[in-house]
């Protein structure tokens, strides 16, 4: 489990095509500290498993399903990525509950700068809008954010200078893809209501 609080802005140093998968090598001095084979690291909000670890770099295999359902397939050598290690038991939950299981991809539609923050408008794939509510939580490229406006086909978030400086959202421009993970609580509530017919006990 993750919390959507990005630990560092890493970099893709190599991409190897494996046919039905890809192997990524990524640099991240913070997240590789103490890393070992089999550990999980979230890369732009996608939970990946460490295959090898050497120095401040690690490799992770990404299967076709993940490449198809996320924006990882668009990454190349030099791409910057948000990195986060799993939350340890007893740590503060700084963001919200994030699984690292991407629900779909959106697209940056617009950026509106202000003096102390920036409003970013992101498209919503069909089927995800029902999980997104104003003042609720959403994960964008692995970043836990609060929804400002929730529309049928888009939502907006307000980014503080720290988020702009330390994550990929400071670099993304209109037209760029982003990974989206909606609040898991909303999905469980929907499922429970569907199986019980909305009846109250």
Helix content: 10-25%
Q: Give the terminus-to-terminus CA distance.
A: 31 Å
- What is the number of beta strands? 12
Structural class label:
mainly beta
Q: Please, what is the average pLDDT?
A: 92
Q: What topology, given as strand order, has the largest sheet?
A: 1-2-5-4-3-6
- Rg on CA atoms, Å: 17 Å
Low-confidence stretches at least 5 residues in length (pLDDT < 50)? none
Biggest sheet record? 6 strands, antiparallel, barrel
Helix and strand element order: EEEEEHEEEEEEHEH
Question: How would you sum up the global shape?
Answer: globular
> Into which percentage range does the β-strand content fall?
35-45%
What does this structure look like?
It is a single chain. This protein is mainly β. The protein has helices at 64-69, 161-166, 184-196, and strands spanning 8-17, 21-27, 40-43, 46-54, 57-63, 80-84, 104-113, 118-123, 137-140, 143-150, 154-159, 177-182. A six-stranded antiparallel barrel has the order 1-2-5-4-3-6.
Primary descriptors:
mainly beta, 12% helix, globular
Question: How is this fold's topology laid out?
Answer:
Layout: E1 8-17, E2 21-27, E3 40-43, E4 46-54, E5 57-63, H1 64-69, E6 80-84, E7 104-113, E8 118-123, E9 137-140, E10 143-150, E11 154-159, H2 161-166, E12 177-182, H3 184-196
Antiparallel strand pairs: 1-2, 1-6, 2-5, 3-4, 3-6, 4-5, 7-8, 7-12, 8-11, 9-10, 9-12, 10-11
Structure in a nutshell:
The protein is 12% helix and 41% strand. It has 201 residues and is mainly beta. It is globular.
